[in-house]
Structures are given as structure tokens and as C-alpha cells.
Amino acid sequence: MLLRDPGFDRSLLWNPAPLANSLNSILIPFALAVVGIGLGVLHFAPRLLFNFVRVNPGLWALVMLLYPVLSVYPQSIIYRAFLMHRYQTLFISPWALILGSGMAFSLMHLIFRNPLAPALTLIGGILFAYRYQRTGSLFVSSLEHSLYGCFLFTIGLGRYFYARVI
User: Fold this and answer.
1) Phi/psi at 48 (nearest 5 deg)?
2) Which of 56, 71, 59, 166 is nearest to 121 (CA)?
3) pLDDT score for 166
4) Is residue 11 part of a domain?
5) Using CA of residue 63, residue 69, residue 75, residue 76, what is the dihedral sign?
6) pLDDT of residue 7
7) Measured between alpha carbons, how far is 54 from 56 in angstroms, rounded to an integer?
8) What is the pTM assigned to this prediction?
9) What is the pLDDT of residue 1?
10) Are 124 and 101 in contact (CB under 8 A)?
């Protein structure tokens, strides 16, 4: 649908140019999240800490390679590019649109039937929608989404975001 819409700027789907100017605003919050989530896992679920890497390093490596391409980018097209283009006129402000995108992204994660998935994806969805709107780059937003997702799988929380638990 997006590709057939004459009002949609296709360059938004792959525009790496804003990455250089966005690195600090991506990496600083990511570093803080790594520390906070890492300490949370260490305190509340220490048995999960790096469990995926320890138990199945081959599958973990495969997830690190395929997750950004097969999961993150398609989700980014749906919850950022499509939703924010198609429904922007329904929202009263850019921030309302960002919140709507984040909420839709979070609601999709209800299928995993645990409170952690929608809670974390609400925060992430708002962050990724903000990044997409600010940079005009699905590439940059998807890269940020990939960082957080790969980290969650690595730190031991991937089990809360994996379809096998459905």
C-alpha cells in the first residue's frame, strides 16, 4: 500500500544519512537501558542472565543476524512507516501520533501473554516512532529497534518476546 501511495516518500524506507547525527541520541539512552535492564535481570531473574547465549550460542548468533531483517524491519514498516503515514491526520499532534504508534506496537506484543513484553514495547515503540519522525529514516529507527531487541535476547529476556511461548 505504501509503495502505491503517491503521497508517501519512498526515501523514508531506507535513508541512512541521518545516522551520523543520531548516534549520540541513540547510544546514550541505550547505554542507560543496558545498565538498568542488566541490573534488573541480575536482581530479579539472575538465572536468565545471558542464558540464551550460554545454552544455545549457535541459535543466539542466528537470531542476532536474522532478527533485524525478518522481524524488526517488517515491524518498522507496519508500526512506523505505514501507521504514521496512513493515520497521521487522525492525531492532533506529532506527539499523539508517536504515542499512537507506540501503543499499537505494544498491543501487538500482547500475543506473548506476559506483562513484560507490552510494557517494554510501549516504551520502545514510543522511542522508535520518535526516532522515525525526527530523522525521517526507517533505517535509523530500525537500527535502534535492533539494538534493543538483540540486547533483550542477549541479556536473557528474549523468552518474553519469542513466539514459541504462545
Assistant:
1) -85, -20
2) 71
3) 41
4) no
5) positive
6) 76
7) 6
8) 0.93
9) 67
10) no
The phi and psi torsions of 136 (rounded to 5 degrees) equal 65, 30
**Inside any domain, residue 10:** no
Q: Which three cell numbers stand for residue 70?
A: 525478518
The DSSP symbol for 114 reads: S
DSSP H helical ranges for the chain? 19-44, 51-55, 57-66, 73-76, 83-86, 94-108, 116-135, 138-155
Q: Could you tell me the residue range of the domain that residue 132 belongs to?
A: 20-165
Locus of grid cell 522481524: 71
Phi/psi at 3 (5° precision): -65, -25
In a domain, 15, yes or no: no
Number of Cβ within a 10 Å radius of residue 16: 11
| Number of structural domains found in the chain | 1
Tell me the three cell numbers of residue 166: 504462545
Contact indicator for 37, 160 with CB cutoff of 8 Å: no
pLDDT the model gives residue 6: 76
Q: What is the mean pLDDT of each run of 10 residues along the chain (166 residues)?
A: 72 89 98 98 98 97 98 97 94 97 97 96 99 97 99 97 66
Whether residue 69 is contained in a domain is answered as yes
Torsion, Cα of 20, 24, 29, 32 (10° steps):
130
The pLDDT score that the predictor gives to residue 2 is 66
